[in-house]
Amino acid sequence: MSTVNRYQHIKSTKPILGKARKLKDLMIKSDNRICADCGAPDPKWASANIGVFLCLKCGDVHRALGPDISKVLSVTLDDWSDSDIDSMVEVGGNSYANSIYEAFLPKDHPKPKPDSAMEYRTKFIRAKYETQDFLKPSLRISSKSSFQSTISVKSVSSSFSSTSRKDVLEDTREFVGALNITVVKGTNLAVRDMLTSDPYVILALGEQKAQTTVKKSDLNPVWNEVLKLSVPRNYGPLKLQVYDHDMFSADDIMGEAEIDLQPMITAAMAFGDPSRLGDMQIGRWFMTKDNALLKDSTVNVVGGRVKQDVHLKLQNVESGEIELELEWVSLD
Q1: pLDDT category, 141, cuts 50, 70, 90?
Q2: What are phi and psi of 67, to 5 degrees?
Q3: Number of Cβ atoms within 10 Å of the Cβ of 182
Q4: 200-244 pLDDT, tens per residue?
């Protein structure tokens, strides 16, 4: 195959406005405004099948890997097919892809920087995507389609059933799993009464809601209460709100946050039965400017269970932090 044919961009019909808008909305997220591999600002290239945004230098390395591993397109110059845009949107961008491809990145193996030498940049990118050194061997991906089936929200849901399309279509379960959510504690919560507050936490997932007890006059409450919610097939973020209980008026909001469940569910599905695994890290939800995390949140197998500790800074409030522990419960 000639070089021209090998790297020929798809020139199908231009995406409709709605599709193009989805790609633009994905590009402006803070974690997608830097290169997924080296952190250089304002990336102008993307790997459509891997689902990451790239700078020119890293894009050149990706292009050298070949389109079977990384299909490189310009975000400004190339015509994107609907399927290419769908692939990017399904993955969700740099943070989601890196939570898989860098889940086991050793601390002594730093990522390249924007000014790193081409030799080191190439070595890192090949290790990350070609030999997939930072994934568990059983998760190593042999093609672009299998990567999307590993990490996309839509495919995670269908992967509870057999890999055949017939079985996927026949699986009509409303829920795909459940969460045991331990509301551990709150720290430095906002004052809503004279000198203190009477806080409680509400968790919502879809139409479901669960609530902790009220802690009287306590800005640093310790709950350690387990709330249970089922995970619907088309799940969204887990929404958390903290309120101050009032006897004679409406309860006052004390902050809120959203928890992205995709990194945990993706990892749980990819690794299978956790009771057969030793204690290990299997995924990570990265802290970005667009989420409420105070630090990266790792997904771990602990004692045969998939768990994730989440430390959140409450949003739309003057102060307050909440700590949670999530545990995934498979229906199988």
Answers
A1: low
A2: -65, -20
A3: 17
A4: 999 999 889 999 999 999 999 999 999 999 998 888 899 999 999
Between the alpha carbon of residue 108 and those of residues 44, 50, 104, 116, the distances in Å are 29, 25, 11, 16
DSSP conformation letters of 71-90: -EEETTTSPPPHHHHHHHHH
Residue 185 banded pLDDT, cuts 50, 70, 90: very high
Do residues 269 and 257 touch, judged by C-beta distance below 8 A? Answer: no
Residue 165 CB contacts under 8 Å (≥ 6 apart), including other chains = none
Cα angle, residue 123 at apex, residues 118 and 125 outer, rounded to 5°: 95
DSSP string, 184-251: EEEESPPP-SSS---EEEEEEETTEEEE----TT-SS-EEEEEEEEEEETT--PEEEEEEE--SSSPP
Q: 187-225 as b/e, with b when 16 or more CB fall inside 10 Å?
A: bebbebeeeebbbbbbbbbeeeebebebbeeebebebee
Closest C-alpha among 285, 264, 266 to residue 160: 266
Contact 235, 227 (CB under 8 A): no
Q: How far apart are CA 298 and CA 130, in angstroms?
A: 24
Chain position carrying tokens 């809601």: 209
Contact status, residue 329 vs residue 180, Cβ threshold 8 Å: yes
DSSP state of 297: E
pLDDT per residue over 56-104, tens digit each? 999 999 999 999 899 999 998 888 999 999 889 888 889 888 888 888 8
- Please give the pLDDT value at position 76: 87
Please report the pLDDT score of residue 136 as a whole number. Answer: 66
Residue entry with tokens 């798809």: 10
**pLDDT score of 268:** 86
**Mean pLDDT, residues 289-304:** 92
Residue 328 CA from chain centroid, whole number: 15
